[in-house]
Flavocytochrome c sulphide dehydrogenase flavin-binding (Chlorobaculum parvum), 428 residues
Amino acid sequence: MSISRRDFNKLLLSGAAGSMFGLLGASGKAFAGTKRVVVVGGGFGGASTAKYLRKLDPSISVTLVEPKAAFVTCPFSNWVLGGLRTMADITHNFNALQNTYGVTVIADKVVSINPGKHEIMLGSGKRLGYDRLVVSPGIDFKWEAIPGYSQQIAESSMPHAWQAGAQTVLLHKQLQAMKNGGTVLLCPPGNPFRCPPGPYERASLIAHYLKQHKPKSKVVILDAKDKFSKQGLFTKGWERLYPGMIEWHAASSGGKVLGVDAKAMTVETDFGPVKGDVINVIPPQKAGKLAFDAGLTNESGWCPVDPSSFESTIHPGIHVIGDSCIAGAMPKSGFAASSQGKVAAAAIINLLNGHKPVPPSLVNTCYSLIGTNYGVSVAAVYELSDKGIVSIPGSGGLTPADASDDQLAQEAMFAEGWYTNISKDIWG
Ligand SMILES: Cc1cc2nc3c(=O)[nH]c(=O)nc-3n(C[C@H](O)[C@H](O)[C@H](O)COP(=O)(O)OP(=O)(O)OC[C@H]3O[C@@H](n4cnc5c(N)ncnc54)[C@H](O)[C@@H]3O)c2cc1C
């Protein structure tokens, strides 16, 4: 089989390369390769890279280090809050990565990276060497940014639920326990942050739940921004499906949260304290802790990378993908992280073979559910330019403002299809 590297990249991103190279590499056996790639984090970015490295070049030995036995996705966690999915539906294990694709999965945490020695240290004290390292640790929170808020407050009374798992369960329980007539305060952060439309999908699906079970209740969004992703589409959906139930307050109209008082269950704004029965504070964010500890971040709090390979511009040999990296026009989304993971896998194979990475195409679609049979989306294809990663004009777009009910129902269906497909593509 003969294929140019340019064609290879095109095939990869169209999804065709996966199945084509799968024929070559799906033996399921990890055999000792001469090249060792270690991937940190089994979420959207890391698991995609690990799987695609093995699919594309089964001679590479790939080790994935992830402390959790199974990964709970943030995508569709809002659907859990809305009563439309269970936690089991959004939980994925690493069995297929191990058994079908021959990735060695180590259930541990990486505590430090030694870029000079090409070595990482695990929580167990074990050291692992690598030829290339991929780091996809997601996000961490700027706890100090909101006076009165802390990790301990998030875990006890005011969950962020911006990393899915125990936090999602806590917020779900609080919503179920809330009285009819209660107020849910939802406090999104300023940009940039994980999943720009996520807080507004959350407001929608909480309202969906409240409308059925506690119809006198309301959702009040106190925003640190003056505008938000897919704003026109969300606002129209709220007026149609949840009239009077969702209030949005822009930062410049007193929406910005200045502090919280967990005992009083209030948040402080320019207009004084606002009381909530359930308070969902989503703090400002930065790259995952490991990225900071390893010195992979710059003054922005995120990791600068070469956009053709996602190799760190600070520590050569280490690729940073997903939410932690600075990826130009791409949003911090699971789809983007997975797309970056595939590009990083292709680039690593080229680099390990002494070739230059090929300028990639990248892709993202973010679906949001506003109600059952009511979905909206934003999509784009990205390329490299002298300004870094930019979206290709006309390559994507938004659900039209005048979309018909059929189109909105179709978008909701596509959202479900998207989740099923991407989950299978990454962990299946
Ligand atoms: C409510 C909500 C809804 C969302 N909906 C969508 C959606 O519909 N579509 C979409 O595309 N995106 C969505 N997102 C965004 C998406 O979840 C993230 O962008 C995506 O998870 C980022 O992938 P990642 O690989 O960077 O990080 P993650 O997927 O978070 O993975 C990071 C992994 O690294 C591990 N890790 C961290 N530190 C270490 C360490 N030191 N050692 C070993 N492992 C470590 C963690 O345990 C974790 O498993 C949503 C987010 C939220 C909060």
